[in-house]
Amino acid sequence: MRSRSSLAVLALFFATLLTTSAFADNAPNPNNLPPCGPNNKIGDPCQAQPAGQPGQAGQAGGTQNNSSNSGKGPNQGSGYVSPTYPIERNSNYFASLTTQNGQNPGQFYSVAFDNTSVMPELSYISVSKKLPNGGIGNEHLCTNLNEDATCRPDQWDGAMIHSTIGRCAEDTNGGCVSELTIITKDGKSIKASPLSKFPANLKGFNGFKANDGSGYPPGHVPWIFRAEGDGPGSEHDYLVNGFIVTGGSNQNGNWKFNTNNFKVEVVPIIRENVSIMKATSINEYTSPTGRVEVGPTIESACLLADDGICLHRRAFPDGIRIKLVLQLPRNISGWLNGSLSKPIASVTKKSDSYDEVTVEAAPGQTVMAGGNVLKTTITANDWNWRNSLGQDSGPKTFAAQMIAGQNSLFIANSGEVGALEWYSAWSKYFGDKAIRVTDAWSIMSTQKKNNNGCGNGSSGLQGIVSTNAAVYDPGAPTADTTNRTLNYRVASPINDPSGKSIPGQYAISMSETIAQCLYNVKSIPSQAQLIITDKNGTQVVQTAAIKTQDGWINFAANNFDFSDLSLLQVKLGADATVKPISTTTSPTSTPPTPTKPTSKVTTITCIKGKLKKSVSGVNPTCPAGYKKS
Whole-angstrom Cα distance, residue 360 to residue 320? Predict the structure, then answer.
């Protein structure tokens, strides 16, 4: 769940995106590079395009945009735009699309769904005032919360602590990286060596424990690691950028803390030397509304910046898997979701304070979906998806701003509370093509805590669910005791920007004891079934082996077809017979009640090359490209 303070920063960020996204002027192209556009691979050089053509935002030629109408926000960076690399952040990329073909951005609601980071994540502590209407007032940047006299709880209502993950060999306190290993496509394991902090001169802060025992972990600095031999070429470096967010509240003049969420991403990087570039930093700034806010400088051209250096993503080497071993505080509990392919995970208790979390996986696809919808097209009924949501929904908050005319662009996290509802309601306007499809290796906390009744808040991590769907349920898969399945709702466009089909990916890793509790079984079988039910009730069944490692079970299914709204059910064992259930059940409700089939359900086998699928339904038909065997 995003903090209300974070929502305010995002509102300002999105408000400045459209005005900073003027397209590139004509620029020379001596190397005959392809134009920057939706089909470019991350990290591949491309040529910025003239105004009005698909391409990258900003001014070409690697210069600084100082024009008076640039719309540079109060915490924007240098305004630099790379002449040879695509826009780094999907948010900036999406904003740039709204100005194509001479269209007026003011005519549209620009809505997208994506699980990559909107802004750089570095260590910082801020405090804030609460407004009478419940909103967030002025914020203030702190050095710490136990010695900084300007940040005492009797002066402020709330606190937000962003604790970046460091390297365990340097500091064993807090979240840290114990090991990063790259496994090449031929099976060779390369243990990455620590290279440097980035930004080099950024400072962290010490952890703190309050009188009631709650507290927050120390904030470190991200590290770059090198894995020589990970693939061809001269670049072999990886940035590990992870963070733990802790919220604080003033209770009777004392700080009380609660860990909110966690995320870590492993990114293959390439450096670009830029003389005007300054290190990403955290600052206080005044927003256009006069409110004092805290946040990072935003360099839309860079993944992260240091003095003279702009980091860009490079493509993952072909066929690699990444093994990351982390130390995490045990109060990071429950489930994680991620962009991973065929993950194998395990968690072992390291001490009363820390777990050791090991995740090995190939990079997974991230699908950015959504679009620009004419405001005159939207009816009152198109906003009804908000009615089933509580107040803890970022999409609901931003939708209210759109209706009030205060905002017209929003990019929701793929697993945010309300994202699935919004996408499903507006998919008829978005079409069947994704905005952008990239690869990523990341895991993060689910936005909604699970209520499956297995485990508790002190149990540490319980499971990881991974999918390449554009949007998905905000919590852990829910247990359906009638069908003895774990259910998870997803939705996604079926094609990439070029019109090519996007094969579905889904994987679950969880503690064996949690699995036994959820499924009410004493032993775990060797197989599981994934039953995919589309919005019309048609079912497709895949069977896959269950792998067990260090007390965790791992299951993955791939190459299935998504729909505007799909229900993914995982059933242990070989019997995949389940009763059809609605795909539209609200994630805030109790597990869905099976509906009685009105006709006999039959199963057929469909083949495409070496691929084989079972399709169940009243009148089952094979998916596009498959034929009945």
Answer: 10
